[in-house]
Amino acid sequence: MLDLYSRIQNDNFISHSEISNANKHEVHQTCVGESHCAALTDNHCPGISVPVDYRCIKAELFQHFVAETNTVWKNSTGNLTAKLFMEKMEFRRSENLINLPRVDLTHLTEIMSGHCRLNSHLYKIRRISDPSCPYCGETSESVTHFLCECQGIGKARKDVFRRNLLSPADLKRIEPQKLLRFINASGRLRA
Q1: So where are the chain's domains?
Q2: For a disulfide at 141, which of 37, 52, 119, 178, Cβ 3.0-4.6 Å?
C-alpha cells in the first residue's frame, strides 16, 4: 500500500500541506469526476497546487485495488470451479449477491466454490464411495456436469436456460437468479 501512496504523490496528487497553501497559487475547481481526476494526474497542470477532492483519491485507490485483485485472481492456480463463473472479480455482482436470502446465498456459494452436496465433492471428502451422477450414472457428478451436461436433469435446464446443454463458457454469463432457479428446479442441493 505504501507504493500506492508514493505513486499517487508522484502522479501529481496533492499533499495536505500543498492543499493548505492552495490559496497562494492559481486554483482550479475541485475535482468532480474521473475525467477531472485524469486531467490532474496526467501532468496537465504541472507545478500548480490544486485541491483534490477526496472522491478522486478514493476512486484512484479503488481502481488500483481492483486491478491488483484481478491480477492475483487471474494468476492464481486454485479456485478452478469459481473461475468457471467469474473471469475476474466483480464487486457489483458481489454486492447484489450479499443481499440474497441466506439459503440462496449458501447454494450459490456451494456451487461456485465446488464445495457442495454433489457426489464428486462428497467422494473427495470420503463421505460416499461412488462419485457417479445419481440422475444419469454416466460420469462423476461435478459442478460442470450438474450445470452443463447431465441429461437426467435436462428438462430443468431447458425450462430455466432455454437450452438442453450448456458449455462451461456459458456459466460466466448466467445470472445468479437463473442459477438459483435451476438449482431449486433440480432439487439436488436440498438438505
Answers
A1: 2-75, 80-186
A2: 119
